[in-house]
Design a protein that fits this description.
204 residues, mainly alpha
């Protein structure tokens, strides 16, 4: 009875991924409840002056590049990042307009790239989860067949049962991680918007 209950639970786990995926049919591998927005649009996070050639020039300024890398790192608290951005733009003798454009252009490129990397990783994990779900289904059917066979091959039943427990644990662990990582693109959006607003305030 216990084994049959486990088999039923395994079928439920394997089927659950089909319910969770593809909330938006345009992106069948997107696993998150949040809508997939492939890229941040500049207009959504920047109300300042046109960036013009700053979109390319920021890469040529080592000081800007180093600061962009520092501010884009999510391990740096947003409040500290905003303070550092404000200090850079408003430093004595600095052309605020030019500095602000360069800094935001760098942040826009870098955080957009981070965001794309996270989203691509989520879709790769989704593909692996589909493969894992198929394997759980097949192994569950095989376990059920062993359970129904006469005579019972208990060593094989135990071996496959233990394998399925391990496969299911990995599947569930990945699902929990995906749920957490699904929040990251939104966190990046919010960080970029907040830093853009800080830079604009200092430019004004």
């Amino acid at each position: 009875m216990k084994l049959r209950m486990m088999i039923g639970a395994l079928f439920a786990v394997a089927a659950s991924i089909d319910v969770c995926l593809a909330a938006d049919p345009r992106y069948p591998d997107w696993p998150c409840a949040q809508a997939k927005v492939p890229e941040i649009s500049l207009a959504a996070v920047w109300a300042g002056p046109p960036l013009d050639d700053a979109a390319e020039k920021w890469k040529d300024d080592p000081k800007v590049g180093a600061l962009v890398e520092k501010l884009a790192a999510r391990k740096l608290p947003l409040e500290d990042a905003q303070k550092a951005a404000a200090q850079f733009v408003s430093a004595p003798g600095t052309d605020k307009m030019a500095a602000g454009k360069l800094l935001f252009a760098g942040l826009f490129d870098t955080l957009n790239a981070q965001r794309s990397s996270v989203m691509n990783g989520l879709e790769r994990v989704t593909y692996r989860q589909r493969e894992a779900a198929d394997k759980i289904r097949k192994d569950t059917i095989a376990l059920q067949a062993l359970q129904d066979a006469t005579p019972l091959d208990q060593p094989k039943i135990d071996e496959l049962g233990n394998q399925l427990v391990w496969e299911t644990r990995i599947f569930e662990d990945r699902r929990r991680v995906v749920k957490f990582v699904c929040e990251v693109p939104t966190i990046i959006d919010q960080r970029l918007f907040a830093l853009g607003r800080t830079i604009q305030q200092e430019m004004e």
